[in-house]
Amino acid sequence: MNIEIMGMKLPHMLVLSVLVGLACALGKLPGGMAGGFAITMSMGFLLDWLGARTPLVNNYLGGGPLFCIFVSAALVYFGIMPASVKKVIDGFMKPSNFLDFYIAALICGSIFGMQAKLLVKAGVRFAVPIFLGLAAAAFLAGVVGFVTGFGWSKAIAFVCYPIMGGGLGAGVLPMSEILHGSTQMDTKQILSMLIPPMAIANVLAIISGGLLDRLGKKYPKLTGNGKLIRSGDEDHGPAVSVPVTVQTLGVGLFTACCMLLLGHVLAKFIPLHYYALMIISVALLKVSGVVPQSLQESCAAWFQFVAKYMTAPLLIGVGVTYTDLGVVINAFTFQTFFLVLSVVLGAVIGAGFGGLLVGFNFIESAIAAGLCMANMGGTGDVAVLSAANRFELMPFAQISSRLGGALILIVVGLTVPLLY
């Protein structure tokens, strides 16, 4: 009776969850935010709590985040979740775009909540682990492709590149057109080869996030516990100590949404993803010092609230709407698994040691510049950072997914004609 889940006593949580379940069973779960929040919060809070207490999963596989994503995905795959409930969650995640709302809060809060000089130090060095992560991933994929008979060039082009490409819409789809022009293969056939490795890699990246978090607990010298730069000075401290109040939450919510709008407006004139433009804009505003401290504190407070109470619900949406277990299961072979594993491992090793070269902590660099290149874009970033307990890295994760993903398309365009 003393067990609490997200601040609620267990009996209270169960009563509310039974009410949500009854609405689902009767087909009375409303669409929009009310139904979306009700179902994703009830499922997310319970599954996150269970995952954090399940042996093996809690210590080695990411705990609650893994449960939220893959249990909800399994409910869809095995036909247990009613179609009407999936429709509500899909609408909550896509037309309502809860993912944008969530990521905007994390980007604004994490950037405005860090010291300006830390942001400058980290930003100018971040390209090094990204490049070395890509190089190591391509090298290991080529080696495994050669050893298994898959072909080293094919392993790089059809396994490494789609995995490191920043997701489906901004990565694999334009990549398929580039490959079509160089290989003369049918675009549909190319997509059927590119999507399965990307899906399997996303699973391995989430699990790897949990394993790296565990590694950091065992070897504290490898991690900064969420801080990217390896330093013992004041750069490690937060910019402000933020009280979470009704006022700071309201102001932070409004400011974060406006910063997201700024990214959309700039994307009208600059050919970059609006997340990338939002990160650049917020970083410049932070460094310039033109944003009042009260607004920065409010964004940091809103970030704390969203990270605590909206992560598990979002991961339910990721599992239901964005995770297709059928693709992962149908594409699974031992050869494909080892090829994908080599790419993820290469990204971790290359980005981790690349980070050490420029003064980053190994684990934070491996997560932000490695795993967040090897997952499926924005949804993958949230899942990986949640499994690794390092939401502070969200701006750098988005740099990996968006700007790093754009970099991969350039690399593909330059190297694929040489490979084929």
Furnish the topology, listing elements before pairings:
Layout: E1 4-5, E2 8-9, H1 10-25, H2 32-51, H3 57-60, H4 64-77, H5 83-93, H6 98-112, H7 116-125, H8 127-148, H9 152-163, H10 168-183, H11 187-218, H12 246-267, H13 274-288, H14 293-309, H15 311-322, H16 325-331, H17 334-357, H18 362-374, H19 377-388, H20 394-419
Antiparallel strand pairs: 1-2
Helix pairs in contact: 1-2, 2-4, 2-5, 2-15, 4-15, 4-19, 5-15, 6-12, 6-13, 6-14, 8-9, 8-17, 8-18, 9-10, 9-11, 9-17, 9-20, 10-11, 10-20, 11-16, 11-17, 11-18, 11-19, 12-13, 12-14, 15-19, 17-18, 18-19, 18-20, 19-20
Brief description of this entry?
With 420 residues, the protein is mostly helical.
Distance between the termini: 65 Å
Instruction: Quickly give the structural class.
Output: mainly alpha
Q: Report the principal-axis shape.
A: globular
Helix and strand pattern: EEHHHHHHHHHHHHHHHHHHHH
Strand coverage percent:
under 5%
Q: Biggest sheet: strands side by side, in what order?
A: 1-2
Report the biggest beta sheet as strand number plus sense, adding barrel if it closes.
Answer: 2 strands, antiparallel
What is the overall pLDDT average?
87
Put simply, the count of helices is 20
How many beta-strand runs?
Answer: 2
